[in-house]
Write a structure and sequence with these properties.
Layout (H helix, E strand, L loop, with lengths): L1 E2 L29 E2 H15 L5 H17 L4 H18 L3 H20 L2 H8 L4 H4 L8 H17 L2 H22 L2 H16 L8 H14 L5 H14 L2 H13 L9 H16 L1 H4 L2 H8 L1
Helix pairs in contact: 1-2, 2-3, 3-4, 3-7, 4-7, 7-8, 7-9, 8-9, 9-10, 9-11, 10-11, 11-12, 12-13
Length: about 300
């Protein structure tokens, strides 16, 4: 089965100069979309994605999903998997800072293509609306790409320095707020977890609120106790910001001792969180003042 596809265009909200900034909101072009071919390729991609704990399998899955999008450029599901998979590659498998930045950027660009499938959203962008305002045109179908695009944008901006981070706060907040409105349980209560990290990493002059951060972390852990990323984020950001060695130790102990087989659907993500936890434990003496470590030992 084939159908004619028109290009969904969006204006360049951010410069794409030199490949260092997120690009436009637009889908890929195809005049002969073939949904049956896309479905076949997607089936292969899904099988590979199930084994995403293996970096090579994850990379192969992302490549397959891109093939599916070439066959059917308006395939939201394949777009979402490309964004999520690329984000996972950057966040969990990549140590080099520049490579991380490049992968987060790629995730953002695919996320923008995904969001441009929503023609109401794309037309508002074409009309000059800012992302934080145009997001009101998105709906439930856009939830995955809103979440993963915002997640990638936040980490890309943070990795590029405080100026970039502050510049993109309005977009990130708008996207996560919309996900929260549409489905606050998405990705194991992802919006609540996001706010926990958000309010702990902001500079004090930009709205850091460690009490709010703590409350959000407590809530997301209560709602989704099997998602280990919440414990790692609380340890890495909130516990370090408050110099709470006891919480840091407790959270990371919980993570490294967790039997990931008890939550099989999250085993790939939780396995990588265990690796992050072990690295943070190794950095403990660098992250905390001597007096905080001594107080925790008493």
């Amino acid at each position: 089965m084939s159908k004619s596809i028109t290009l969904v265009m969006g204006v360049a909200l951010l410069s794409a100069c030199g490949g260092k900034h997120p690009g436009n909101y637009e889908t890929l072009v195809s005049q002969n979309a073939n949904t049956s071919t896309a479905e076949s390729i997607t089936t292969e991609a899904d099988a590979l994605f199930e084994e995403r704990a293996d970096q090579a399998k994850l990379e192969a899955a992302v490549a397959k999903y891109k093939e599916a999008i070439t066959a059917d450029p308006l395939n939201r599901y394949a777009h979402e998997r490309v964004v999520r998979g690329t984000y996972f590659l950057a966040d969990a498998f990549t140590e080099d800072k520049e490579q991380k930045i490049a992968l987060f950027l790629e995730a953002i660009e695919w996320g923008k293509r995904c969001l441009a499938i929503n023609q109401d959203f794309a037309s508002r962008i074409n009309g000059g609306e800012k992302e934080k305002d145009a997001v009101t045109a998105t709906g439930m179908d856009d939830t995955p790409c809103l979440y993963w695009t915002a997640s990638a944008l936040g980490k890309w901006a943070k990795a590029n320095g405080i100026a970039k981070a502050l510049k993109h706060i309005p977009t990130v907040k708008a996207y996560i707020s919309k996900v929260e409105e549409l489905n606050d349980e998405y990705w194991h209560h992802g919006p609540t977890r996001y706010w926990g990290a958000y309010y702990s990493v902001l500079p004090s002059f930009a709205g850091r609120d460690l009490d709010r951060s703590s409350s959000y972390f407590e809530q997301t852990i209560k709602d989704s106790p099997g998602y280990l990323g919440s414990y790692v984020l609380r340890a890495e950001h909130w516990a370090v910001a408050t110099q709470n060695v006891t919480q840091f130790d407790a959270d990371l102990k919980k993570v490294v001792e967790f039997d990931i087989s008890t939550v099989p659907e999250l085993a790939p993500e939780n396995g990588r969180e265990q690796i992050k936890a072990k690295k943070l434990i190794e950095q403990r003496n660098e992250l905390f003042e001597k007096k905080a470590i001594e107080a925790a030992a008493q």
